[in-house]
Amino acid sequence: MGKGYYISKHLATAAMVLAAIALVTIIALSVVYNREKSKNAAKFSKATTLPVFPTPKTSNEPWDKYRLPDTLSPQYYNVTLWPRLVKNANGMYIFTGISGVMFTCEKKTDLILIHSNKLNLTVFKGHHAKLTGLSGVTAPAIKTTWFQSETQYLVIQLEGKLKPGKDYWLYTEFTGELADDLEGFYRSEYMENGEKKIIAITQMQATYARKAFPCFDEPGMKAVFHITLIHDRGTTALSNSQEIKNVIIDGMPITRTIFGPTKRMSTYLIAFVVSDFTYIDAKDKKGVRIWARKKAIEDRQGDYALNITQPILEFFEKYYNTSYPLSKSDQIALPDFNSGAMENWGLVAYRETALLYDPRTSANGNKQRIVTVVSHELAHMWFGNLVTVKWWNDLWLNEGFASYVEYLGADYAEPTWNMKDQTILYDLQSAFAVDSLTSSHPLSRKEEEVNTPSEISEMFNTISYSKGAAVLKMLSEFLTEPVFAKGLSVSFTVLSLLCLFSRLNQAVDQTPGIKLPYSVHEIMNRWILQMGFPVVTIDTRTGNVSQKHFLLEPEAVVDRKSEFKYVVKHHNCDITFENPSYKSNGSKMNGCWPTSMCRDTSEAQILDDAFNLARASIINITLALRTTKYLLREREYIPWEAALRNLNYFFQLFDRSEVYGAMQAYLKKQVKPLFEYFGTISSNWTTVPSGHTDQFTQIIALSLACSTGVEGCRELTRSWFKKWMQNPPNNAIHPNLRSTVYCNAIAAGGAEEWNFGWQMFQKATVAAEAVKLRSALACTKVPWLLNRYLEYTMNPEKIRKQDATSTIGYIASNIIGQPLAWDFVRANWDYFFKLYGTGSFIFSGLIRDVTYRFCTPFELSQVHDL
Ligand code: BES
Ligand code: ZN
């Protein structure tokens, strides 16, 4: 009893810490964000010739609003950009550009607002732009122009009004920095044959197109783009559409690549690349090409991606019942890339680890990552690119949808992998984990709630991706897959919930045999408009069924009041929700365990539920732990992975406390049979099993056996690593097992092992191998090595900017590294915030990683002090 109290007190504090971290993170983010923003603004004002006006907080001026007015709509752009891949006289990398946009005036106005950020615009007769009327219309003269730094606008005030229905041409010339900041038009560097190579690449989502050229940078402001890139002869230029002309410029070592007009598209999907990369293609009608560094392509690292891209495109053509809309589909692997991948229309960009696969050194997990990422991004080619959200508040529909159908595309490309079953781990359970906190939010946000670039960036979160995927999967399952796909119809261009649901309703009405108790809207609104999910209690004596909002912290106060009435009804001996629960896993899952559910996923779900219920103090922790007793006999991946995650949570909380020893001993006992089983079937670890997920289970067996001290495990991993150290060119460790082996050997060793690992990391030419080493280097128990490694994350020559925060995260997951990483991040907060604060999910991931173990009131107070 005493122990039970001890545990639940810790858990309660941990839940409070989690909630506090979320809150403090948001507050700290906004404070530092504003501070950094004003610093940037100061920097920017130096680059321009006219003054920058600060934004008064209460202003009602249109240039102080983050949303563009509805007075103008862009039709097409002519953009020419010239990135310089050598430093200029001031030691800077820059690009120059000229851009014209034809827009139609929709409503009478004497004001033009167009996004422009960190661009130095040429001044013509005192103004930053030229305006002309088209088809005989005379444009009013420009009165004044300035930059509104807060809202990132070039503001153009006119002497007279623009006329509704008339077209105008706005022309600008500009210079920008080709920085290594992973945003907008930026540069990436890598070494090849001892030579430093520089390439120019882009990342526009969500609000960085305005950093490459002035544009109406909202997803709803679609236009046609005519793009031209000027670049050195011998380099290749790529963009969204096919090259139509390549003009050599006489007397200069440069060439001009002109691309055909794009489809009508959003600015965030624009892409440019200038590089000396090479490609492989399948010579097929879809125009699939895989681009990467020359060495990577020569080493055939693009072959796997090439094999799967074409089938996945064909799968989605059938799924959406619409042909792939473009004439080419380039996939490019970039050495520096902020997110995992980006769905630029026709030129999809990836981190190297998300596209390149080397069978000699990459693990099957790396292969799975590639097939799911490719599938996710290709799903966007229709859902997201052809049909696009009007504004970022609906982002969940875009990302949630791609996150759901990525499993369908991956399953088509790799039918023996049972990919669809993995949703339970990677979406459902991850969604539950954050949706059970008071800091969660409803999937759907009102348009007015999302305005600033940082509010937009916040939308790229687990709720949008994973809860979005889980809810859409549930919808697809209760409608049935064919009805869901039929209702999707991508024949409209604005992606809106209302449209989608009406079409799904129509599809239901047209399908005999399907009858819903409510409309799709009514069913789905409960899941979309309110946050969280219900915990349902069934009194087996009375048959009473009750429900309440499931919260990990039972006493927490929820600010967002919601009705929370998920309809529950009795059905024979089972209990079913009338509105199905999104705890669905591949069968008609209605809040209880149907017999058709496959065994391993249901075990995994029982286990995850039990741990969550225990964390919420609804059931006793011993009951949850009891669900792991059977693991002695378990050989399947999904339940083991679910168990591991939940047990890891407890380990991370208690690995500095007295219960640790007992937990360790228990887990050791549970995993021993699994370790022995794989030892036997793999002829004493010399082979790997043939089944895809069995290979994952084998990795779990080895890593858990070594970390809990199962006899023979550490000796094995140490001897494999030693052999490699004795003969570095010949690494005989199986790629699947490398992460575990490297980590264990470096943890057990000292500076010699660490330095060897570091050398191998620097020499690695396969990105997946480099990640394995980079994460293993964080396993050392030697504090000075960890501190030195932390310092490396601030030196892009040692650790790429794209990898800095995840490296700190690896160090924080090491019990010795955690306090070092926490101190390091606090000491260098401004540096990290400036670099990663507003882009994608990187910064929130960093905070989560360095505070993950926190569970005491003292640690809570440290978070408050941030
Ligand atoms: N559109 C996103 C990339 C992105 C994320 C851009 C955040 C800007 C901010 C892309 O479709 C995506 O979701 N990529 C994922 C991989 C995917 C398999 C979940 C990523 O980058 O991790
Ligand atoms: Zn996506």
Automatic annotation (TrEMBL):
Keywords: Aminopeptidase, Glycoprotein, Hydrolase, Membrane, Metal-binding, Metalloprotease, Protease, Signal-anchor, Transmembrane, Transmembrane helix, Zinc
Domain Aminopeptidase N-like N-terminal: 74-269
Catalytic site: E377
Residue span(s) of domain Peptidase M1 membrane alanine aminopeptidase: 304-493
Cellular component aspect of the GO annotation: cytoplasm; extracellular space; plasma membrane
Family annotation (Gene3D superfamilies): 1.25.50.20, Neutral Protease Domain 2 (1.10.390.10), tricorn interacting facor f3 domain (2.60.40.1730)
Cofactor requirement: Zn(2+)
Single Gene Ontology BP annotation: peptide catabolic process
Membrane topology: Single-pass type II membrane protein
Enzyme Commission code: 3.4.11.-
One Gene Ontology molecular-function label: zinc ion binding
Domain of life: Eukaryota
Keyword Glycoprotein on entry: yes
Domain ERAP1-like C-terminal: 603-864
Compartment(s) where it occurs, according to its Swiss-Prot or TrEMBL record: Membrane
Annotated site, Transition state stabilizer, chain positions: Y465
Signal peptide: none
Residue positions binding Zn(2+): H376, H380, E399
Protein name: Aminopeptidase
